[in-house]
Design brief:
The protein has 67 residues and is mainly alpha-helical. Helix content is 84%, strand content 0%. The protein has one domain. Keywords: Membrane, Transmembrane, Transmembrane helix.
């Protein structure tokens, strides 16, 4: 039951991300939240979440001027 609820919440986040890709909004936040939900049960999603975290870390360091 817990798995179904977590995956259901992940699907809702995916739909919200798709909606906010079309209209202005925080689409990347919802896409990341969906990946977090899916990464609990799926190793592939965990791999993509780690890649996304590395990309955002590098982008933040670049914006802050840190090498």
């Amino acid at each position: 039951m817990k798995k179904v609820m977590v995956l259901g919440i992940g699907v809702v986040f995916v739909f919200l991300a798709i909606i906010f890709f079309v209209v202005p909004g925080p689409s990347i936040i919802f896409a990341m939240a969906a990946l977090v939900c899916f990464s609990i049960y799926y190793p592939t999603a965990r791999k993509y979440l780690r890649k996304l975290q590395k990309i955002f870390t590098k982008a933040c360091h670049k914006l802050d001027g840190i090498k």
